[in-house]
Amino acid sequence: MGVFLKNRVYSGLYYPDFFPIRKVDSLSYETLIGSMGNRIAADVTAYNASAPEKSRKVVDRLTGQIPPTRMKKIMRETDINLYNQLKARGITDVDRLMDLVFGDVEACVDGVNGRLEWLTLQALSKAQISLSTTNNAGVITQKAIDFQMPSANKEVEAAAAQYWTTGAYTTNTPITDIETIVAEAKAAGSIIKRIFMNQTKWIAFRTSTQVQDMFNFAFFVGGTQVRRAPTLKQANESLADYGLPQITVIDTSVSLETADHVISAVDPWLDADSADRFVLFTPELPLGEMLVGPIAEETNPPKQMSQAKKGHILVSKWSTGDPVSELTKGETNAFPSFTKVDMCWNLDTESHTTWDA
Q1: Alpha helix locations (H) across the chain?
Q2: In sequence order, what E strands does the chain have?
Q3: Packed helices 232-241 and 199-207: angle between N→C axes, nearest 10 degrees
Q4: Staple 355 to which of 73, 97, 154, 329, CB 3.0 to 4.6 Å?
């Protein structure tokens, strides 16, 4: 199991870019929101003069407990009998044999990473996380975990005609929205470098008349103007020419399973109603850290278990009898610390009244 995990490459995850792993000694955390702000310039002083003291910028503190993220797979008696049958057949069924041996290991690592991906993208898209019976089979939060984005950083559109939807492509003004937020953030001391949106918002952006006109994505055929939607590369090259931030399209899916074992594929960027509304404006990455605490089972391993790790994820295997079964568990104690949340801006592209996640 250790050799398999060491050589297995897991890619395509967003969360390590936004929140790199940082191991901590405690399962309690205190996030100093605003502690990763822009540099404060030193002062020019006279010789023999004391250096002026600068304040520590802390907008707010977010405290809590780093929760466990766990999942378990069970190879039951019938699965074990199938494994023994395949093993007896020899090398011709090696793929199925390997899947039975290591499929649960891989599923547990993928599952833990999938939950951290979901937590990260929910925090980024809405600046909060809510755990309910529909999205989590474990802990249910009575109130949303709020990452304390300042209310001034939560923006809405001026009118319904400006919504980032394909139906409003002739009247919406996404370039103006970007320029406004970039200027507002700069006035507050934050330099916006990145824009994150979902596929739906990207399609609405690229089909906007203002986008195509401003970037000259149009041509004439027999005197008739024909508009052309830009590619992501073309759009980013044009944005760079205008000194505007670069767009990244968040495109991923996570499968969630309820306590009743109902499985559904979800887009972790969407809100609780599965609506794609939010566009996030950020400084350079990372935006914080993924705090990883100690795991009791690793420091005090039961004798009947075998263990191996993939990064911060502990994988454990053990057997039971009557009936015989083999269990595999993936586990980490991790939670995102969104320390640059006060330097980010969030635009609700489908509201002109109030910003509400």
Answers
A1: 2-7, 15-18, 77-89, 94-126, 174-187, 199-207, 209-214, 232-241, 296-299
A2: 21-23, 28-33, 60-65, 68-75, 128-129, 145-146, 154-156, 194-198, 218-221, 224-227, 246-250, 254-257, 263-266, 278-282, 289-293, 306-310, 313-320, 325-337, 345-348
A3: 60
A4: 154
